[in-house]
Amino acid sequence: MDSTPAPAANPACVINCAVYARDGERRDIPLEAISDVLAHDDGSFVWIGLYEPDDAVLETLQEEFDLHDLAIEDAHNAHQRPKVEAYGGALFLAVNTAQMVEDRILFGETHIFVGPRYLITVRHGASLSYAPARARVEREPGLLALGPSYALYAVLDFIVDNYLPIADQFKSALRALERDIFSDSYRRSTLVRLYDLKRQLTEMRMSVAPLIDVLSQLVRSPSPQIPEETRFYFRDVHDHVIRVNDTVDALRDLLGTAMAVNQSLVTLAQGETVRKLGAWAALLAAPTLITSWYGMNFRSMPELDGRYAYPLLVLFVGVVCFGLYRLFRRIGWL
User: To which protein family does this belong (predicted)?
Assistant: First the structure.
């Protein structure tokens, strides 16, 4: 009978802890059994998935895998810029993750330790489970023989693939906002939404752009943890990141243009309103000026004593107003 403790013995922050044999067979183990697995150099490797682990778990893993103090310190702090660092024979990566929640991007981080026979992922904040990446790797037992480097590729590819639907969702949101921008009525909410989208895209670019350099280093890395057989996989992820980054840059430019166009249209609409008000003011000013003259207490006023003075004055005022109205219509003020 198998006496290996059940995975439930692991702390709650340990999402997965499994050993993968060279033939791809998976076996879940508790953290305490890691030493026994590493003691047998049979080509297997350990893949551990953590979510916001406590200090005790990280200290345990540091002892089991001889992780560097600086890498553990970075894993404690979930505010790292995307990077890759080499500590002896191991690599440490910090990568930003993103997911859409109620039409907003929430960002998280994943810290990854890669060694000769282990891969450790430490998730913080808004970060999807890497269960799909595990399932994908487990469906390809032949590639599992490449070791932790192929599992690292699966995780990074999963992270980058999650950026693509976010970019597509922003494209759809921008198309919807374009209809509001060119509508006849100005809505302040449109400008607020444009600004909010551009701010979120700027934050997304801050996560995506540094990842290009991280993957470039992995492609060119002399580290034994990234063998030649897996480098072209990382090159594929690198191409995907560049495409996402270009899409984000294009969307940011379009949003900036949309904000400028929206502001210009608002200014034009205000100008149209001012011109119309000016035209109506001129139409009212002409009869007001004429009638104000005749409201003065003078006896020697033109046509004051004439029999048809009042009707002629009314007709004259009407002609002046009609002439001004035709003039303003012709020049587009009314």
Answer: Belongs to the CorA metal ion transporter (MIT) (TC 1.A.35) family.
